[in-house]
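Homework help board

Subject: predicted structure for assignment chain

Our instructor gave us this sequence and asked us to write out the predicted structure in token form, then describe one feature. I got the tokens but I'm not sure how to describe them. Can anyone check?
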Amino acid sequence: MASDETLAAERLSSAQIRLWRREMWVTERFFRFSNFLTLFSPNSAPLGGGSWLLAYDL
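My token output:
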């Protein structure tokens, strides 16, 4: 009976690890995308305030 409990615990922990890895992948993708979007935001400091995008409006 103890072996069944051990197997269930191992199965649960592996499922939790897979879920955690999937959550971390989604989180990483979200932050990469949000960092990409900040390149186009009007107040992004690295690109001079995004003023290079305003040239398309002229």
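Reply (TA_rk): Your tokens look well-formed. For the description, you could write something like this. Residues 16 and 25 are 14 Å apart (CA to CA). That's the kind of observation they're looking for.
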